[in-house]
Design goal:
The complex is a heterodimer of chains A (about 300) and B (about 290).
Chain A: E1 16-19, E2 26-29, E3 48-54, H1 63-66, H2 76-85, E4 90-94, H3 107-120, E5 125-128, H4 133-146, E6 153-157, H5 162-172, E7 175-179, H6 184-195, E8 203-206, H7 216-232, E9 243-245, H8 247-251, H9 254-258, H10 260-277, E10 281-284, H11 287-297
Parallel strand pairs in A: 3-4, 3-10, 4-5, 5-6, 6-7, 7-8, 9-10
Antiparallel strand pairs in A: 1-2
Chain B: E1 2-5, H1 13-21, H2 24-37, E2 41-47, H3 53-65, E3 72-76, H4 79-88, E4 94-98, H5 102-107, H6 109-114, E5 118-122, H7 132-149, E6 157-160, H8 170-186, E7 191-192, H9 205-221, E8 226-229, H10 234-241, H11 245-255, H12 267-280
Parallel strand pairs in B: 1-2, 1-8, 2-3, 3-4, 4-5, 5-6, 6-7
The chains are: A alpha/beta (about 300), B alpha/beta (about 290).
């Protein structure tokens, strides 16, 4: 007697967000099944892998972190191209130079670099501000303006500063990353507030990705619950795709700083875990992990 | 249900200052105001009462008894303050509270027998708040068995399931409603109470009222006997008196999963439906739950 396992069908669907423009455009999310549940239905868009580029030569990366990029450390455009050579689907440019606690570079200078990078690569571009809520308003609105029409994925937008940044993103044709501090209720609240003025299919959720041993399970739970609530229960304020900005978090750990192999594993384990939790985009630092995650997603390991 | 006025609590700066200064007027005004609003009991929340526990408690009890004729709920974790308070009460007081914690079973629970009072027994154990329904049942049945052995009958026991904020642990908020509904089957004759305002702790102030009102109605349907609540909230008192039957009806319908046509409702009615769904755990909580 043939046994056919019962299949769940769900009322909800993750929104399909398109970033980049024209031939460069890339689709994120759009699934109506739980992460990697290929047996439940078709998953049109595989998880996307981004490699990270700081907009200024990094001051405190280890020797092995720098090694793959040693000739391009001071050249974000060349660095971005190198990321794509390493097999990334897209690039994440992090505007570290604008951090008031670091170089505090002005918004227009940073925006000019973003424009250069966006123009130089044939994939979409994710842009993260420094995370300083006040400075990011200036920086990200300027970036939005200068790169009008590029359809960047801009973030982070937080509870404290989402209004001006989302307006600029709306006015200049970009998508946004809504970031909340590891709290699913705050995540929902920010989405509800954003949805009043911003289109649903241009929002990506960043619930904050903590490294293995430093809170990864919190990120995992929130991502997993977000998928449950959005896909299984059809809550349309929780149906945005999820981005896991994990590379720099893992790189900060003692383990990553102490040993090259440990650092690789730290990012790798965190990455695969968050993929299973439901991340639709991963931001990685290490090209080796980009390769490994690609193989994992393709079912080859 | 019986309403226990919560306003006299040591966390409030006004109350804290009044106690320090032994300002009878502030305390008496709070007591009178709550009595006029419809309170059945007045709660005296002393906190840990570390400084002059006996003297402070006696002063508070006498200050209140001087002007109102309602029974008092003596609310402290300090057994010395508790004993002084119970002794000073002229009307039969409520011992608020004992629990499954070892020190409470040993030092608080016997006071209920000694002074012949009603007693709130919460589900807390030495490990803290039990997660979920089954562990709460286990804890409360054990403590009540002990209370019965001490000669305290179920009718004098008010079970407190410990309410957590919906913004912190949404699932346990729904669990508590189910737990209250089970009490009469498990321990016939037992009464119950909750710290109602806890459900809205952490929620923006202007939204706390509707959470408290809705939750009280949901718990009441399960047979909740009393609530320590903000009796100065007129809507809460009205609801409790049965003066807003259409709201109660809507809440019950929502709890039963009946499809309600939101478009046909007033803004206030819609808000109650949305709030009920959040408290049932059907919709994920966010501070913006009324906005979507």
């Amino acid at each position: 007697m043939d046994y056919k396992a019962p299949l769940e069908t769900y009322s909800g669907k993750v929104a399909e967000v398109v970033i980049g423009k024209g031939e460069k455009a890339l689709k994120i999310g759009g699934e109506s099944v739980l992460p990697f549940h290929f047996f439940e239905g078709k998953i049109e868009n595989r998880p996307r892998l981004a490699l990270e580029v700081p907009d200024a030569a990094p001051a405190n990366w280890t020797e092995w972190e720098c090694r793959p990029y040693k000739d391009v450390l001071s050249d974000p455009v060349a660095w971005a191209k190198k990321c794509l050579d390493f097999g990334a689907d897209l690039v994440c440019l992090r505007l570290v130079s604008t951090d008031p606690a670091a170089a505090n570079a002005p918004a227009d200078k940073a925006a000019a670099v973003v424009k250069q990078v966006a123009s130089a690569i044939n994939t979409p571009l994710i842009v993260y501000g420094s995370g300083d809520e006040t400075k990011d308003i200036e920086v990200l609105t300027k970036v939005a303006e200068v790169c009008a029409g590029e359809n960047l994925l801009l973030g982070p937008l937080a509870k404290e500063n989402y209004e001006p940044i989302s307006k600029a993103a709306l006015d200049h044709g970009h998508c946004i990353i809504a970031q909340t501090p590891l709290d699913i209720n705050l995540e929902k609240e920010l989405n509800v507030k954003l949805l009043k003025t911003f289109p649903r299919e241009r929002i990506v959720i960043d619930p904050l990705s903590s490294a293995l041993g430093y809170g990864m399970e919190y990120s995992f739970t929130i991502m997993e619950r977000t998928k449950h609530i959005g896909v299984m229960f059809g809550d349309n304020t929780m149906q945005m795709p999820i981005i896991a900005d994990l590379g720099s978090e893992c790189a900060k750990t003692k383990q990553a700083k102490e040993s090259e192999k440990q650092g690789l594993l730290w990012e790798g384990i965190t990455a695969i875990s968050l993929l299973l939790a439901g991340a639709n985009v991963l931001i990685l630092r290490q090209p080796e992990n980009c390769k490994l995650m690609r193989e994992a997603i393709d079912g080859k390991i | 249900m019986v309403l226990i006025g919560e306003s006299i609590h040591i966390i409030s700066k006004d109350v804290n200052d009044a106690v320090k200064e032994r300002n009878t007027k502030v305390i008496q005004d709070l007591a009178k105001g709550q009595a006029a609003a419809g309170a059945d009991y007045i709660d005296l929340n002393l906190g840990p009462a570390k400084r002059d526990p006996e003297e402070v408690t006696q002063w508070l009890v006498n200050t209140i008894q001087g002007v109102i004729d309602l029974p008092i709920s003596v609310d402290t974790l300090n057994p010395v303050a508790m004993e002084a308070g119970l002794k000073a009460c002229k009307k039969r007081p409520l011992l608020n509270s004992s629990s499954g914690r070892t020190d409470s079973k040993e030092r608080m629970l016997p006071l209920a027998k000694k002074y012949n009072t009603d007693v709130v027994i919460s589900v807390l154990t030495d490990k803290g708040c039990p997660p979920g329904i089954d562990s709460r049942i286990e804890s409360i049945m054990e403590t009540i068995a002990l209370a019965n052995e001490l000669g305290i009958p179920n009718e004098d026991i008010w079970v407190d399931p410990i309410i957590l904020p919906v913004s912190a642990d949404q699932k346990q908020v729904a669990d508590a409603v189910e737990f209250v509904g089970m009490l009469q089957d498990l321990m016939p004759g037992v009464k119950s109470t909750v710290g109602l305002s806890n459900v809205s702790n952490g929620t923006p102030d202007e939204l706390r009222g509707i959470l408290n009102c809705t939750y009280m109605t949901m718990l009441g349907r399960g047979g909740l006997y009393s609530a320590i609540a903000d009796v100065l909230d007129e809507e809460l008192v009205k609801l409790n008196k049965g003066e807003l039957p259409n709201i109660v009806d809507l809440i019950y319908k929502t709890m039963d999963g009946e499809v309600v046509d939101l478009a046909s409702l007033s803004q206030k009615e819609r808000d109650y439906v949305k709030t009920t769904k959040v408290l049932m755990g059907e919709t994920l909580y966010s501070h913006a739950w009324l906005e979507s």
